[in-house]
Write a structure and sequence with these properties.
Elements: E1 8-16, H1 21-33, E2 38-43, E3 47-49, E4 59-68, H2 72-85, E5 102-108, E6 113-114, E7 119-120, H3 129-138, E8 143-144, E9 148-149, H4 150-154, E10 162-164
Antiparallel strand pairs: 1-4, 1-5, 2-4, 3-4, 3-10, 6-7, 8-9
């Protein structure tokens, strides 16, 4: 029996709305591609989005897929390290504060993960146009475990302002 770790396809959400958010996401995509035991497999276009359950300036959001041999919480540690390196501040008692960088694990293959630190699928991803639209750009047939087809949820987010950034 092999101790070889299975490579998993993992979908990440990226967002920022402080500083130069577009430049931040471009930079961090390169850093994600260099994470240990991880390969960047796909990335969506960038989108400008209105804050949802938050305040501050518009966000820039994207989704990427990685193939990784890291365990879920090890990948979470790496993503939080990148957030910290880029000045992410988590004010006590403030949820969804404006941020220099936000990295979320959205999907881990078709697994459901629930630990003290990590819940996958991301619990609100099916309610967010800034997740669904870029997700469907790279995985049009995507299904969210426990929720069904991602495309079926997009219509419910039509009131959320989102526009593709054309470079």
């Amino acid at each position: 029996m092999s101790n070889q770790k299975v490579e998993e396809l993992v979908v990440l959400g990226l967002g920022a709305n402080l500083g130069n958010p577009l430049r931040m996401l471009e930079l961090v995509l390169g850093e994600i591609a260099r994470l240990p035991q991880t390969v960047l497999a796909a990335q969506s276009p960038f989108y400008r989005t209105a804050p949802v359950d938050s305040s501050g300036p518009d966000y820039v959001n994207a989704v990427c897929a990685v193939k990784t041999r890291l365990a879920p919480e090890a990948l979470l540690d790496e993503l939080q390290r990148l957030e910290n390196v880029h000045g992410r501040v988590r004010p006590a008692g403030v949820r969804n504060a404006p941020r220099t960088l936000d990295l979320d694990i959205l999907l881990w293959g078709d697994e459901v993960i629930c630990t003290r630190r990590l819940e996958v699928p991301h619990p609100r991803m099916h309610e967010r146009a800034f997740v669904l639209r870029p997700l469907l750009d790279i995985f049009p047939q995507c299904s969210i475990p426990g929720k069904g087809r991602a495309a079926d949820w997009l219509e419910k987010t039509l009131d959320q302002r989102i526009s593709k950034i054309v470079s």
